[in-house]
Amino acid sequence: MFGNLDFDVIRRALPYLFYEGMTFTLTLTGLAALGGLVFGTALALMRLSGFKILGRIAGVYVDFMRSLPLVLVIFWFYFLVPYIGQWVTGASRPISVGAFASSLITFIMFEAAYFSEIMRAGIQSISRGQPAAANALGLTYAQTMRYVVLPQAFRNMLPVLITQTIVLFQDTSLVYVLSITDFLGAASKVAQRDGRLVEMYLFAAVVYFTISCIASFGVRRLQARIAIIR
Amino acid sequence: MNYNWNWGIFFQPNPMGTGTYLDMLLSGLVLTLKTGALAWVIALITGSIVGVMRTLPSKGANWFGFAYVEFFRNMPLLVQLFLWFFVLPELLPKSAGTWLKQLPNAPFWTAAIGVGFFMSARVAVQLQAGIGSLPRGQKMAATALGLTTFQGYRYVLMPMAFRIILPPLTSEFLNTIKNTAVAITIGLLELTGQARSMQEFSFQVFEAFTAATILYLLVNAVVVTAMRFLERWVAIPGYITGK
Lengths: 230, 243
Description:
Chain A is mainly α and 230 residues long.
């Protein structure tokens, strides 16, 4: 059944697949995780701030994002970002935003909703005595968060955050719907050019599988190492 | 914003000759629900079997459950759909492959099976956690009563575990419905796909996506409400959620 397959096509496409495709995928994953974490933490702080309106806004945003399919959100931002850009810069026409910028904005906004739920759980896992003690030491709200609560919340939630990043890494393949050359996009372009769908898609599957497997194995090791002994 | 809003577009006839643009979106919604429902049935059945295997006192079964979950969890859904759709028919014997390729509604069946197996790994993990959260005594009591392993799972462990994991299962069900949107890549005209083609035909981008968004939010609200009732109905007396 593998008789008439030509695995040499993979070897010939390797530079293109990794220099073009995988670089895009990994850069997008890294920046989106970073941006998502920053925005997500801000959303979590809004929700836990005690200001009703702020909490409400953050809650609605998170629920809204989480009830939409990522593919639809990708389309939304792809068409919306040029108009937002026009509005922000005051240009006379919708500005053109590159494929990378558009998908980066999409993933940051989308992942922020998921990261915020993780950070919220992390912040809530800190015992009440900690902020109380920080308060007693005369720390301001910002200092309490910066030096006492967030570092611990981040540490507690690190395995979950990385797991979410692995999911994000897999989800970035969905930029395929915008014909962007990420790893899967590159594989698919070669596959269609050479008529070698089976080889290229199998190879893409193996690569995604290997990277995700190694990463989740690492998460398990990490979890055992950083667990705080109480 | 120099964008020509035209909310009346939904009541104009679509170029497919199947009624208005609204009809087009609604047919997409129906397909999303159908695909999601079939995928969920597959996910529940296979996920339950694999989840139970991970808790059985057999090394082989544990290992199989572990490998199954890792296999389906560590590949993007999109890649899995491509494997089912483009790769599987080529690797089968010629006659079977041709039959698969000529199947009417191939994108629908592929999407349901692909999303179903993808989600089954997640269901398995939830069920394993649910069974693991039960006190050890439950299993022992079942054995002491003379129940076989199968009976123990059927009458003691599973009814408890499923009720405990009902809330996470609700969100997995919602994920199943949302994930069917990925099937747009293999040509399934579900809700997102119909919104996209409406945008291509009419150039009314934001109206099309707004309508799709509202429909997804509605589906979400209906499922969440229905599951709240189900949760209250099957709640276990004595637990926090129970009566």
